[in-house]
Design brief:
The protein is α+β, with helices and mostly antiparallel strands. It has two domains: 486 residues, no CATH class; 80 residues, no CATH class. The strands form eleven sheets. It has a six-stranded parallel sheet, with helices on both faces. β26 and β27 form a beta hairpin. The longest helix is centred in the first third of the chain and has 20 residues. The chain is globular and about 95 Å long.
Length: 748
C-alpha cells in the first residue's frame, strides 16, 4: 500500500473526445515511464552535464523501448552569454524547466555547501566563504569546493583540506582552485537526502525500479546513500552507474596529500566530529576501501537476485504497465540490469589522475592490488588512550572479489595501431569481454592535455591492462569525449586569446559564467590594466622636458610625464559610484603629440573592476581535463547509459504531482519566503514548496520531514542539521574504516 496520495492518469492530448455512436472511443493517455533515474553531480558543479545526460537517456530509451520519452529543457550558456553579465549566474544557468510536454524518468539531484552567514567575505566583488572559496549570493556552492573531493567514504566525515600557502600554490588553476576547505559533512547530508529520496520512491510503490547515474564525487555520495539505506534495513537502488569516481583502491597518497589531511586549516572542521578526526588522520587502507565497495556491490546484487523470478521485467509489454514499451519490444532481446553496479572509467581523465587521488574513474579496477590492512591482533595503547594497531602488507584481487554484479566499461580516445593489420583504431564501448591495455610501452598518456594539466598527475602503469566486463552492446560505439564545447588547439579563436603558454597545447573549453565568477574571486582574478583617459579640454604642461616614452604603447603611443597619482585618481573617478572607483597604481599625464606642451589626457595602470574581470574570464578559455567527458556528451548516454540503466516499474515518476514532489526534494536550493512567493529569478521558496506539495508532505515520514526541512535550513543559514557520525555509519558493518597509521573503528 502506498504511503502517498496517487494522482489518477491524465490525458496527453488537448480537446474533449465524445462518442458519435455506441462504439468505444480511444483517448490519448501518457504511457508510463520505465523506472526512476536519479542523476547525481560532483564537486564544484551545478549539474552542468544534466542536459546532456537527460536528453541522451530519453533518446536512448526511446530507441531501446520503442516509446517516446521527452526530456525537460535546460538554460545552457550560449556564445552570446559570454558577452554579457548576469547578476548571479548560479541562479540563471543550468536551470531545469519541466513543461507539459516533458515525459521523462529523470530526477536531477542537487547538493552542495553553504557558508554560515556571519563568516562570508567579499573579494573582487564576489562572495567567498571564510577560506576564500567562491560562493553565490545565497552564500552557497553547488557540490562544494573542488578540493574537497574524497577517495573513500569515511573521508566524507573528515575535516577539510588544511594547506599552508606553499602547498596552496599547487592550486593555481583559476577554474579548479585548491584552497583550505570546510569540513565535509555537507556530503553526509546529501547522502542522507538521496537515501530518503530512494525510500520515498519505494514508499510510493514497493515494486518501483530505481537507477542512479552519478558523476565524480556524486558517485561517493551515491555509495554512502546505499550504506544509509542498508543500515535502516531498506532496499538499495536497483542499479548504480558510476562515472569517473575519485574512489581509490590505492592507499598511498603521497606526502603532500597526506600532509594536507592532518594540517589544521583553521576552521575546517564540523561540529561534533572533533573526537573522531583521530580515526581519519591518514589514508584509508586497501582493506577498508575494497571491503566497503564489496559490501555495497554485494547488497545491490542481492537486491537484484531477489527479483530474478519477478515477472516485472518480462511482463513490461503487458497492459498493466500502461504502454511503457512499444509493441515490438521483447524481454528476451533486452537486458535486465537490476542488481548491477557499473563503473565507467576514462584513462584521459586528468582530474582523477591527480597524485592524491589515483581513482578507479581514471584507471579502472585492477585484477590485483597491493596495499595495507590493520592487524587487529597487534596493538598498543597510545597517549590518547586509544588502540593503535600495526598494519601489514596485503595483496588483493579486487575485480574478482567484487563479483559478477560489478561491471566496468572503458571510455577512451587513445589511438592504437594493430600490430597485424597496421590499422590505427580506437577502443569501442560495448565489445564482448576483453582486456584493455591502459598504456603501451613508451606511450605518453598525458599528451592529450595542456602542460598545466600534467602537473601533479600520475602516469598509467605501462603494459598493465584492465578486464572490461561490461555486457556487449547490440551496437558497440566509439566513446564521444569531445563535447560540442571543446575547442581544438589550432582553433582561430585561440590565436590572439590571452592564455598563458602552459595552458596551451591541448583542447580548451569556454569558461562558463559561474566558473568566471569563481575565477574572479581567485588570487589572480583581478589583473592590472593600462587605460587612456582623454580630457574634455587640455591643461598646460609646465615642464615637457621631463617627458618620456609611454610605458604602454599599445594603449597610448605618445609622450607622457609622471603625474600626481592622487589628483589623477580623483579626476578619473569623478562622478563614478564608489563601488566603481578605479584603484590606480601608476599615473601619467599624456602630452599632445605636436608640441608636447599640453596635457590632453591621462595614462593609468589600474586594477580591473570586478565586472570587467568577470567579463574577461567569461570570454576566455580553460584547458580541458576530460573529467566530465563521459557525462558531458549526449551520445554516450544515447548509446550506452540508456542500455545499462534498469527498466521496470516507474509509477512514481509517471505521476505528475508526485514526480514534481520528488524533483523538489531532490533540490536543496530552497529560499525562505512568505506565502506563495516566487523569487524574481524564478526560483521557488520553502513556503511555495509546502503549498504546492501539501498532499504529499502531509503524508511524509516525520524523520524525512525533519531531514528535508533541515536541508532547507542549512541552505539558508549554513548550520548543518543533526547527522549520523562516522562511528554510527561503521556500526552496521557495511562501511569499513581503518587507516594506514593503525587506527580502526570496529563495529559493535
Amino acid at each position: 500500500m502506498s504511503r502517498y496520495v496517487k494522482t489518477p492518469q491524465y490525458v496527453e492530448c488537448s480537446g474533449i473526445y465524445t462518442a458519435s455512436s455506441a462504439m468505444d472511443v480511444n483517448i490519448c493517455v501518457k504511457h508510463r515511464v520505465p523506472g526512476n533515474i536519479i542523476l547525481v553531480h560532483g564537486v564544484n558543479d551545478l549539474g552542468t552535464s544534466y542536459e546532456a545526460m537527460e536528453h541522451g537517456l530519453c533518446e536512448g530509451l526511446t530507441t531501446r523501448l520503442g516509446r517516446g520519452y521527452i526530456p525537460a529543457s535546460y538554460r545552457m550558456p550560449t556564445e552570446a552569454d559570454a558577452g554579457k553579465l548576469e547578476d548571479e549566474p548560479d541562479f540563471v544557468f543550468f536551470r531545469r524547466a519541466v513543461t507539459e510536454q516533458t515525459h521523462s524518468p529523470v530526477i536531477p539531484f542537487y547538493w552542495g555547501y553553504r557558508e554560515r552567514s556571519d563568516r562570508v567575505k567579499k573579494k573582487n566583488g564576489e562572495y567567498t566563504d571564510r577560506h576564500g572559496n567562491r560562493v553565490n549570493k545565497d552564500y552557497a556552492k553547488g557540490g562544494g569546493p573542488f578540493a574537497n573531493a574524497t577517495t573513500s567514504l569515511p573521508d566524507m566525515w573528515n575535516r577539510g583540506i588544511g594547506l599552508p600557502l606553499a602547498v596552496e600554490e599547487l592550486g593555481d588553476d583559476p577554474i579548479r582552485p585548491v584552497r583550505i576547505t570546510p569540513g565535509r559533512m555537507y556530503m553526509v547530508l546529501a547522502a542522507k537526502r538521496l537515501a530518503a529520496l530512494i525510500a520515498m520512491i519505494r514508499d510510493y510503490d514497493e515494486r518501483e525500479t530505481v537507477s542512479i547515474v552519478a558523476h565524480s564525487q556524486g558517485c561517493l555520495v551515491s555509495l554512502l546513500a546505499q550504506v544509509f539505506l542498508l543500515q535502516d534495513k531498506q532496499r538499495p537502488a536497483d542499479t548504480l552507474i558510476l562515472n569517473n569516481p575519485p574512489y581509490s583502491l590505492d592507499d598511498d597518497l603521497g606526502f603532500i596529500w597526506r600532509a594536507a589531511r592532518w594540517m589544521d586549516g583553521s576552521d575546517n572542521t564540523d561540529p561534533g566530529m572533533a573526537p573522531h578526526y583521530l580515526y581519519l588522520a591518514d589514508s584509508q587502507t586497501l582493506r577498508a576501501r575494497l571491503d566497503t565497495l564489496i559490501n555495497i556491490v554485494k547488497a545491490v546484487g542481492e537486491e537484484g537476485r531477489s527479483h530474478a523470478s519477478s515477472p516485472v521485467f518480462s511482463s513490461l509489454n503487458e497492459p498493466e504497465h500502461d504502454g511503457m514499451v512499444g509493441p515490438t519490444w521483447e524481454a528476451s532481446a533486452d537486458r535486465d540490469n537490476r542488481g548491477k553496479v557499473y563503473l565507467y572509467f576514462c584513462p584521459q581523465d586528468a582530474t582523477v589522475a591527480l597524485a592524491g587521488i589515483k581513482g578507479i574513474g581514471w584507471q579502472g579496477v585492477p585484477d590485483s592490488q597491493r596495499g595495507r590492512e590493520v592487524d587487529e591482533t597487534a596493538f598498543h595503547w597510545d597517549g590518547q588512550l586509544t588502540k593503535k594497531y600495526e598494519t601489514a602488507p596485503i595483496e588483493r584481487r579486487p575485480l574478482a572479489e567484487l563479483g559478477d554484479r560489478f561491471y566496468q566499461r572503458v571510455f577512451s580516445q587513445t589511438a592504437r595501431m594493430d600490430a597485424r593489420s597496421g590499422v590505427i583504431s580506437y577502443e569501442k564501448v560495448g565489445l564482448p569481454r576483453h582486456h584493455y591495455q591502459l598504456r603501451a610501452a613508451g606511450e605518453d598518456d598525458l599528451n592529450h592535455v595542456s602542460p598545466s594539466e600534467r602537473k601533479h598527475r600520475e602516469n598509467l602503469p605501462e603494459n598493465a591492462s584492465r578486464d572490461i566486463t561490461g555486457e556487449p552492446l547490440k551496437t558497440p560505439v566509439y566513446a564521444d569525449l569531445g563535447a560540442a564545447s571543446e575547442i581544438k588547439p589550432d582553433d582561430p579563436r585561440l590565436r590572439n586569446a590571452d592564455i598563458p603558454a602552459e595552458r596551451r597545447g591541448g583542447p580548451m573549453e569556454r569558461i562558463t559564467p559561474d566558473d568566471a565568477s569563481g575565477a574572479t574571486a581567485g588570487k589572480n582574478g583581478i589583473r592590472r590594466i593600462w587605460q587612456h583617459h582623454r580630457l574634455d579640454g587640455v591643461d598646460p604642461s609646465p615642464d615637457w622636458r621631463s617627458s618620456r616614452d609611454s610605458p604602454a604603447p599599445r594603449v597610448y603611443k605618445g609622450r607622457v610625464r609622471s603625474g600626481d597619482m592622487e589628483t589623477i585618481s580623483r579626476r578619473i573617478n569623478a562622478g563614478r559610484e564608489p563601488a566603481q572607483h578605479y584603484t590606480v597604481h601608476q599615473a601619467f599625464e599624456c602630452l599632445d603629440k605636436s608640441s608636447h606642451s599640453r596635457v590632453e589626457g591621462y595614462l593609468v595602470e589600474r586594477d580591473e573592476l570586478p565586472d570587467e574581470a568577470r567579463l574577461r574570464w567569461q570570454q576566455s578559455y580553460a584547458p580541458k581535463s576530460y573529467h566530465s567527458a563521459i557525462v558531458g556528451n549526449k551520445a554516450n548516454h544515447v548509446h550506452v547509459t540508456a542500455y545499462d540503466v534498469a527498466i521496470g516499474s516507474g509509477k512514481a515518476s509517471s505521476d505528475p504531482r508526485f514526480y514534481a514532489y520528488l524533483c523538489a526534494v531532490a533540490d536543496w536550493r530552497f529560499k525562505r519566503g512568505v506565502g506563495k512567493d516566487i523569487l524574481s529569478d524564478g526560483r521557488g521558496t520553502w513556503s511555495a514548496f509546502l503549498d504546492e506539495h501539501e498532499m504529499h508532505w502531509g503524508k511524509e515520514l516525520e524523520s524525512r520531514r525533519i531531514l528535508i526541512e533541515g536541508t532547507m535550513n542549512y541552505y539558508n543559514t549554513g548550520v548543518l542539521p543533526a547527522l549520523p557520525l562516522l562511528w554510527q555509519a561503521v556500526k552496521a558493518g557495511i562501511c569499513v574504516c581503518e587507516t594506514t597509521n593503525g587506527r580502526s573503528l570496529v563495529p559493535d
